[in-house]
Amino acid sequence: MDSVNQDENVNLEPPGKKSKRGTFYFLQVVVAVGIVVATLFTAWTDPGLLPGSFGDKITIASAPEFTDEPEEQLIVPTPRLNPLVGIVVGHWDDNSKDPGAVCTDIALTEFEVNQNVSTLVRDMLIAQDIDVDVLREFDPKLDNYQATALISIHADTCDYINAEATGFKVSSSLANPHPDRAARLSACIRNRYSQATGLKLHNSITIDMTSYHAFDEIHEDTTAAIIEVGFLNLDRELLTQHPDQVAKGIADGILCYINNESISGDPLPQSTP
Hints:
By secondary structure, the chain is an alpha/beta fold. The protein has 2 domains: 21-61; 84-258, Zn-dependent exopeptidases (Aminopeptidase, 3-Layer(aba) Sandwich), CATH 3.40.630. It has 7 helices and 7 strands, in the order H-H-E-E-E-H-E-E-E-H-H-E-H-H. The strands form 2 sheets. The chain has a 5-stranded mixed beta sheet with strand order 4-1-5-7-6, with helices on one face. A two-stranded antiparallel sheet has the order 2-3. It starts with 19 loop residues before the first helix and ends in a 15-residue tail after the last helix. Mean pLDDT is 80; it is low at 1-20, 46-51, 53-64 and 268-273.
């Protein structure tokens, strides 16, 4: 028998027959490679590109868990940077046919005067960094209205009464829960209005002023007053030709109250004619 060289590879299987070990080995390799490729493909592929429910399962499995309970969120109100003032335009109401006093000799109404003056007051206050709400006579916003101050602007009769029927009036509520604030607001307006217009305080305050409807509607912390800016007869020239002076007196009075300015020379009530 010839010797076999141990350094040479010897095939002991019959010719034409493959090794069983070699076939199983290659099958293992193919399967292993397939698993690796599939894993990498899944990891690097957008779940939306995967077919059918498989992509959905991948998406669900990778999504964070959510609970039905909403996260608690603290709602912090934004603080108001500027003081707020409400201005009621006397007799301004689309549903009312009462324009206030009517001057038939020149086709002038109290509402027109009130509206003109209120607009000027608004502009003057805004120029001083005051926020302003211009309100109708029976504005729904008056219900529980909250502001630093509220002023209702009106004018007196067009009729000639006598030579003493001239001047202005200021009043706050009789049942004000903060009488000290109301007294100071009224005093500021009386003082500054007299200085700006030269008009005297007319001491004929009526129940319509002291029991003005808005006083009972607004929030109890809102300081309020009502002003009759003058008589539409003897004070007509001032009210119609110089409304800027009228508005300045009211705006300065409001600023006096807000800025806690000193009050000097506060006009004393005049005797009722």
